[in-house]
Design brief:
- The chain is an all-alpha fold and 407 residues long.
- It has one domain: Growth Hormone, Chain: A (Up-down Bundle).
- It has helices at residues 8-39, 42-70, 72-96, 101-115, 118-133, 137-165, 171-187, 205-218, 220-250, 254-273, 275-281, 284-302, 308-322, 325-336, 342-355, 357-371, 373-391.
- Helix 1 packs across helix 9 (220-250), helix 6 packs across helix 14 (325-336) and helix 9 (220-250) runs antiparallel to helix 10 (254-273).
- It is globular, with a radius of gyration of 20 Å.
- The two termini are 19 Å apart.
């Protein structure tokens, strides 16, 4: 264990996050692509995303408890190893039987069960490794979320390359290998973690798991940020996971979709890196407004399906606006929630990302098949803008600026 300040453990944690995100974002593109390839229907993509989100929704409180009890580092390692094994089931099943949508959904559910909690565990670990590195939470989260964005930017590009040259099924071998690389880096991390004290509620797993919801109810500033994330999860995500895959699949252009998503994520990385500088000139509440409304405003022209160069420009601006949101969310949770309970709160964030799209993806898929991409894209853009205005007008916005805990 290192006793003096050193960036080693922080860097190793970020490398683990990067490769974990590359693996996850490859699936973000490959799963919907395979569903549409099998059926030719955008609805199938929405159904796949919705059903495979259910395990994450149901297990999140329990996973948060496991993170806080077992430890952030150990949870991250186990999750990545199991997720890699689950990813291998897709090419193995395709080799043994004919791949169908129900079979793909079944494997996706298994993968979703074992994949829950990896990113939450690494986020909850940030204050511990940041302290060892001697850097502030704002800077640590800025770097962490830029790494997140870099991994997310790389994944679709890698997936598009693999789909083009290796085929969709062989792509999942790469997904597994990259995920295991993440586990390998996390195995090298050595850190003292703040653990849950021995309270009576630990004897009741349900009460222990539900503490995350109670914390959310007692902390309006975190709740309002969760509402912002919810609006993006339920309304915006279908544009990337249903609408765009349907559009680019219809013109048989996986490379352009991969490049667009990667470019957007790359600019998200830039925006995340700028978070620390933003906080020197803007309050946390205004950074939140900038991010949420910026995404909404940039989405509107994209919904008109302009020429590819114009869509790329709007996508780059959207990614830059999105960038400060994740490090802001992390920082507010870390400043508002006790260290020993953060795993459960970060798991609630994952509940939103998993549960929020469940119904919206299905409806988006049905709407796209019924009314077409142009109409649905415009409606979703208008809804994102409306939600952004409502959320950022909350009377609790000022509470985002205050801190209850300082690591």
């Amino acid at each position: 264990m290192e006793t003096k300040r050193s960036p080693r453990q922080f860097v190793l944690t970020q490398l683990a996050s990067f490769f974990g995100l590359v693996s996850g974002s490859m699936v973000f593109m490959a799963f919907p692509w395979l569903a549409i390839q099998l059926t030719g229907s955008a609805t199938s993509s929405g159904i796949l995303v919705a059903i495979t989100s259910i395990p994450g929704l149901l297990l999140a409180p329990v996973i948060g408890s496991i993170i806080d009890k077992m430890g952030r580092r150990k949870t991250s390692i186990v999750v990545e190893l199991l997720t890699g094994l689950a990813s291998l089931l897709i090419p193995l099943a395709a080799g043994l039987w004919q791949m169908t949508l129900p079979l793909l959904i079944g494997i996706g559910v298994v993968r979703s069960i074992v994949a829950s909690g990896g990113m939450s565990a690494r986020k909850a670990l940030i204050p511990d490794v940041a302290k060892m590195a001697g850097i502030s939470l704002e800077r640590a989260n800025s770097i962490s979320e830029s790494v997140f964005a870099a991994g997310f930017a790389s994944g679709p590009a890698v997936a598009a390359f693999c789909i083009e040259f290796l085929g969709i099924y062989n792509t999942f071998y790469v997904v597994a290998a990259v995920g295991w690389l993440s586990a390998g880096f996390m195995m090298l991390v050595r850190v003292n973690e703040v653990r849950e004290e021995n309270h009576d509620e630990e004897k009741n797993l349900f009460k222990f798991a539900m503490e995350g919801f109670r914390i959310l109810g007692r902390t309006p500033s975190v709740a309002i940020m969760m509402a912002g994330v919810m609006s993006l999860a339920m309304i915006y995500l279908p544009t990337e996971m249903v609408v765009l895959p349907k559009y680019f699949n219809s013109i048989n252009d996986a490379a352009s979709m991969g490049l667009l998503l990667s470019a957007m994520a790359a600019m998200t990385m830039v925006g995340s890196l700028m978070f620390e500088k933003f906080t020197k000139h803007m309050s946390f509440a205004n950074v939140f407004r900038f991010a949420l409304l910026g995404v909404a405003i940039c989405l509107v022209p994209m919904s008109f399906l302009p020429p590819y160069w114009a869509m790329m420009v709007c996508g780059l601006l959207l990614g830059a606006a999105w960038g400060p949101m994740p490090p802001l969310m992390n920082t507010v949770i870390q400043r508002k929630v006790a260290p020993s309970k953060r795993g459960r709160v970060f798991s609630l964030e994952m509940v939103i990302w998993s549960g929020g799209p469940m119904l919206s993806m299905v409806f988006a898929g049905i709407a796209v098949d019924t009314y077409g991409v142009p109409v649905v894209y415009k409606v979703l853009a208008a809804m994102v803008l409306t939600a952004g205005i409502l959320v950022t007008s909350s009377k609790y916005m000022k509470q985002i600026n205050t801190a209850d805990y300082q690591d």
